[in-house]
Amino acid sequence: MAISAQSVKELRERTGAGMMDCKKALEETNGDMEKAIDLLRERGIAKAAKKAGRIAAEGLTAIATAGNKAAIVEVNCETDFVAKNPEFQTLVKDIAEHVVGQNPATVEAALEQPFKGAGETLGHVINEKISTIGENISLRRFSVVEVSDGVIGGYLHMGGKIGVVVALEGSKDEGLAKDLGMHVAASNPRFIDRNEVSADEIEREREVLKNQALSEGKPEAIVEKMVEGRLSKYFEEYCLVEQPFVKDPDKKVSALLKDAGATVKTFVRFQVGEGIEKKQEDFAAEVMAQVNKQ
User: Less CB within 10 Å around the terminal CB: N or C of the chain?
Assistant: First the structure.
């Protein structure tokens, strides 16, 4: 089948592999992006899977709490100049407060709601800011977290470029929840524990690891043991409770939670612009674009 230049570009951005390697992998997998990633990993060509999510768009995350509930939002803009604008920063905080107070089901529903329960809609408020600030602004996503018997911790990194909320049960220790938020921001786990990893995901990873070992020339008799050992490393990398705690690497997060008598109900991590392709501009052009708007 014909492979588009856009597909090759996307695969290259997600794996760091060369253009021709990406094209060949897509051809061999009939254009299946995920299978092509696996193939490049098996051949040792792809870089670490953690680099697959690229930071692209500008903007900020914000967190708002109300009792036993918290909301985290990501609001995007076009340039870092606007992300540092106090007017934009206030808008992002206001949107988080709107979400935690009004509890919309979707972004579309949120935009149709009266802002903070009264007056014009949230969509109208955002459009007014677009007119005054002079850039496109959008509420990209949000998540609302709630606990009945526990605590929620929020953490913002790099001024809000990364935002995390962590909900704990069995503990009222806000410091612990915030520390775990800091950990999630730094370590970027995908799951709470291995029980959250789907059987399909485990089988896919096992197949990749098996093919890796075979391609390294390892005897087939020991490949299975190698695969299980490497699979344990996979869980340690991507499961929160199995990761070394960032503030005390000699201690796993699971031990930290056990000492506190707590469990993680859920966590949400937003990194501004992940998965959005960013228009490439140099610094001088960005400055001139701002000057010309004035």
Answer: C
Check pLDDT > 80 for residue 182. yes
Q: Report yes or no on 102 lying in a domain.
A: yes
pTM (predicted TM-score) = 0.76
* Domain annotation covers residue 83: yes
CA distance 186 to 181: 9
Question: Within its chain, how far is the Cα of 247 from the centroid?
Answer: 21
Specify the CATH number for the domain of residue 144. 3.30.479.20
pLDDT for 49 equals: 43
The first and second tokens of residue 133, run together, are 């600030």
Same-domain status, 46 and 66: no
**How does pLDDT run across 156-180, given as a tens digit for each residue?**
999 999 999 999 999 999 999 999 9
Please give the backbone phi and psi of residue 70, each rounded to the nearest 5 degrees, phi first: -140, 150
DSSP H helices, 113-252, are 122-133, 174-187, 199-215, 220-238
| 153 and 64 both lie in a single domain | yes
Q: In this structure, are residues 40 and 52 in contact, taking their beta carbons and an 8 Å threshold?
A: no
Identify which has the larger pLDDT, 105 or 43.
105
Distance CA 197, CA 239 (A): 9
**What is d(CA 229, CA 241) in angstroms, rounded to the nearest whole number?**
18
User: 11 and 106 share a domain?
Assistant: no
The domain total for the chain is: 2
Per-residue pLDDT of 8-18, as tens digits, reads 888 877 776 77
Domain containing 66 equals 58-174+270-293
